[in-house]
Amino acid sequence: MKKILIIREGAIGDVVHTTNMFRAIKDKYPDTKIDYVTGKAASALIEHDSRLNRVFVLEGKDYKYLIKLASTLKKEKYDLVINLQTSVRFKFFAALIHAKKLVTYKKDFSFHAVENFFYTAKQVFKDIENHNDLILEIPPEVTEKVKQDLPADKKIVILNTEVSKTRQGRKWPEKYFKELALKLIEEYDCIILIPGSKEDFEVVKDYENWHENVRVIAGKYSILESAAVSSLSNVFVSGDTGPLHIASAVQKPYCIGLYGAAPIGRTGPWGTNHFALSADLDCIPCNKRKCSQKHDDSQTETDPCMYLIEPIHVFSVIKDNDLLV
Fold first, then answer.
1. Distance CA 305, CA 283 (A)
2. Which of 23, 43, 299 is nearest to 4 (CA)?
3. Confidence at residue 297, expressed as pLDDT on a 0 to 100 scale
4. Domains within the chain, CATH numbers bracketed
5. Which of 38, 247, 310, 323 could form a disulfide with 230 if both were Cys (CB 3.0 to 4.6 A apart)?
């Protein structure tokens, strides 16, 4: 298998979780050329990756566009296509490329997503080995650029307060983030960074009023630059989101994932230096987008499973494990 194409269009966190798969192939077969098809946002994270030969950016998902793209990719004469999408649309797309061999991903919640993607490739490459960490490659010049904006004399904690609008069950209360931020500043005199997209800025812009050590960086950086900022931080706290998984793959920060409905065993931060917290409820992980235990008279807009993870729980993980020492 000298020429391989990987297809994964989904969420950014999913694409991050596939990196161990092509890393393992390149470790064992360094002469193999690996191309990747993905969405625009995720492509920015992997387009500079030395383990990949070329990254194709999906400009659409309708059948007409996919047929046209498949016609182009067919000319590459791939030995293997690894289709990591489960939809009929992308199975059709992968088949049209006419590789010598085609393997398709099957979602299995008994594995972590990293393992699930890895085992898809292992069907073909029997001797590859998975890694217990993730590595995203960030160009040094990108890291140097954002480094100029960050203090060199203080520890840095990133509190990722926002989640996708369709995943509100993964959101931790704003007041909890504020309480944690103030406690960390009091104890460690650290800098708190609040990241996010340009759309998130309007929601989080006033968080700088919490304390002079709190800085809002939402909308300031590209996705790759944000990854570089994470690589220069010490601790990253977040619900189950793409930024959490990016941070878990840039090596330096200790990541603390806050988990409600989502199963830790499936999407917890991958790596030995990371932590995941969840509430002690019989109903979790339900993996549902809408909480069946939440009522209209609930004391908070946050789902109960997230509300029961308190700031002291997160602070204790940081303090007891000397993450900011």
1. 9
2. 23
3. 45
4. 3-122 (3.40.50.2000), 149-320 (3.40.50.2000)
5. 247
Q: Which residue has the higher pLDDT, 292 or 18?
A: 18
**Within 10 A of 67 (CB to CB), how many other CB atoms are there?**
12
Structure tokens at 82: 């690894």
How many residues would you count in the chain?
325
Predicted pLDDT at 303:
87
3-state secondary structure the chain: CCEEEEECCCCHHHHHHHHHHHHHHHHHCCCCEEEEEECHHHHHHHCCCCCCCEEEECCCCCHHHHHHHHHHHHCCCCCEEEECCCCHHHHHHHHHCCCCEEEECCCCCCCCHHHHHHHHHHCCCCCCCCCCCCCCCCCHHHHHHHHCCCCCCCCEEEEECCCCCCCHHHCCCHHHHHHHHHHHHHHHCCEEEECCCHHHHHHHHHHHHHCCCEEECCCCCCHHHHHHHHHCCCEEEEECCHHHHHHCCCCCCEEEEEECCCCHHHHCCCCCCCEEEECCCCCCCCCCCCCCCCCCCCCCCCCHHHHCCCHHHHHHHHHHCCCCC
User: 143: which 2 tokens?
Assistant: 């890291």
pTM of the model: 0.94
Residues 168/252/278/218 CA torsion (nearest 10 deg): -20
Residues in contact with 281: Cβ distance below 8 Å, sequence separation at least 6, in sequence order: 304, 305, 308
pLDDT tens track for 88-145: 999 999 999 999 999 999 999 999 999 999 999 999 999 999 999 999 999 999 999 9
| 39 contacts 57 by C-beta, under 8 angstroms | yes
Decide if pLDDT at 258 tops 60: yes
pLDDT tens per residue, range 165-197 = 767 678 999 999 999 999 999 999 999 999 999
Q: CA-to-CA distance for 89 and 110, rounded, in angstroms? A: 25
CA angle 319-112-310, nearest 5°? 30
